[in-house]
Design a protein that fits this description.
The protein is mainly alpha-helical. Among the domains are: about 80 residues, Up-down Bundle (Four Helix Bundle (Hemerythrin (Met), subunit A)); about 40 residues. About 65% of the residues lie in helices and about 5% in strands. The chain contains 6 helices and 4 strands; from the N terminus they run H-H-H-H-E-E-H-H-E-E. The chain has a two-stranded antiparallel sheet. It has a two-stranded antiparallel sheet with strand order 3-4. Strand 3 and strand 4 form a beta hairpin. The radius of gyration is 23 Å and the shape is extended.
């Protein structure tokens, strides 16, 4: 009974946050609705006993990515509303409708194709099998940490450098030249 209650509450968080992201007119409020959605997803991960994924969901997405979104939104000062009746590209909406219909049909085809697929054996989540099918005695988290911080450490660090460059680029683009005196010449 408690599992059903947690599922319903977490699903309401996810759906309410997703609707808030789409319907909110103020971008900061939309980003905060995204945080609600991400927390709801992390509650679902905890309910499925995927605690590591729940922690990553909160730390990486809600803690870092959304904070970066909020930083950029507040830095750029996006506080004016645009007139949605004026479309700069006339083909934008029909193309979006075609792409949306294609995505829905692809998801439908994937669901139909997966009916005939074999079902996987459920485990506790701690078993890792080698290439020959024999069980390894390391847990998933240890193998993931070893993989990220030894085999792919260069890609991991390059991703962090890319994020720093994106933030610096945003700051440079958001800077407005100061005007001095009646001539309005930048200093």
């Amino acid at each position: 009974m408690i599992e059903l209650f947690v599922f319903v509450v977490a699903s309401a968080m996810v759906l309410g946050g997703a609707v808030g992201v789409v319907l909110r007119t103020h971008p900061v409020h939309a980003a905060l609705s995204l945080v609600l959605t991400l927390f709801g997803v992390s509650v679902h991960f905890v309910a499925m006993e995927a605690n590591f994924l729940a922690a990553v969901q909160v730390i990486v997405y809600a803690g870092a990515i959304v904070v970066l979104f909020l930083f950029v939104i507040m830095l750029l000062g996006v506080d004016k509303t645009e007139d949605l009746r004026l479309e700069p590209f006339r083909v934008q909406r029909p193309v979006a409708a075609v792409v949306g219909a294609a995505l829905v049909s692809l998801v439908g085809l994937a669901i139909i194709a997966s009916r005939d697929a074999t079902t996987a054996v459920m485990g506790t989540g701690t078993e890792v099998l080698a290439a020959d099918g024999s069980p390894l005695h390391d847990g998933n988290i240890k193998r993931l940490a070893r993989d990220v911080f030894s085999d792919h450490v260069l890609a991991f660090e390059l991703t962090s450098v890319l994020l720093v460059i994106a933030v610096v680029g945003t700051v440079v683009l958001a800077r407005k030249p100061r005007t001095d005196g009646p001539g309005g010449q930048p200093s």
